[in-house]
Amino acid sequence: MLKLLNRIALVTGSDSGIGRGIALAFAEEGADVLITYHTDAAGAEETAEGVRRHGRRAVVRALDVTNPASVAEMFGAASELGEIDMLVNNAGLSGAHKPFAETTDADFDSMLKTDLYGPFYCTREFVRRRGSRGGKIINITSVHEVTPAPEYTAYNAAKGGLLAFTRGLALELAPQGFIVNAIAPGLTRTPPTRERIDSEDGQRGIRENIPLRRVASPKEIGRLAVYLASEDGDYITGQSLTIDGGLETNWGQGA
Fold it and tell me: In what order do the strands lie in the sheet with 240-243?
């Protein structure tokens, strides 16, 4: 039996990478998907075709998650599918690698507007529309929500904030029937990480730091999202599920 049969999901930033992996995993389990993109319209259409190959409906819309008007307009477009009952806040920036003292106001603002305000705007619109009918909310954070990376100050702050946002919403919205969780991926093969993963230094780092000696695939993140979105995850809320091949458990060894 399909776990998400006839459910309707919004997956932000689903034109590639983890977002695409989640959208396709949802479709495979019977969900229709609203796919959004910021600049990669062609990538979003590829995701939509993948959803349709599973026999499910897909709608593609441009979205600027930093703009509440764009968010409201996008939710309105969902009427082509029906009412959204699952929201995945995936759209985000990976962040610039630079020393803290060189981080500009614009760097910090851009990161927080996309990775923290974006989920805020999308979730607020979702909650307002669903009301007492509740729904499933999944925020895509990072292992860096709790274990910071040097010279990624803005990214660390945004992902740590998104974890607190997830936990606070789970408490507040439970009486309305909302279930709110996060997924914290480790290193995952996506377009922004491909070059680093395939480099000699990247391969060495994977062997030394990830106990399973490989990176995650977007499909693996998608399967975890299916678990949380389905009835299997109905008694889990306010949690962040780490999927990192053991990376976090390995940090600090040999100290």
Answer: 58-62, 32-37, 8-11, 86-89, 135-140, 178-185, 240-243
pLDDT at 241 over 80: yes
Instruction: Name the DSSP class of 199.
Output: S
Question: Tokens 């603002």, residue?
Answer: 109
HEC letters along 12-63: CCCCCHHHHHHHHHHHHCCCEEEEEECCCHHHHHHHHHHHHHCCCCEEEEEC
Total number of domains constituting the chain: 1
Among the options 152, 155, 227, 235, which is catalytic? 155
Domain range for 41 is 8-247
Spatial distance between the Cα atoms of 23 and 134, rounded to a whole number of angstroms: 21
Q: 30 φ, ψ to 5°?
A: 105, 5
- Residue 117 designated active-site: no
* pLDDT tens digit sequence for 204-236: 878 888 899 999 999 999 999 999 999 999 999
Q: Which residues contact 32 (CB under 8 A, 6 or more apart)?
A: 6, 7, 8, 9, 51, 56, 57, 58, 81, 82
Q: Rounded to whole angstroms, how far apart are CA atoms 5 and 56?
A: 10
Quote the pTM value: 0.96
Q: Is residue 1, in this structure, part of any structural domain at all?
A: no
What is the domain-level CATH number for residue 131? 3.40.50.720
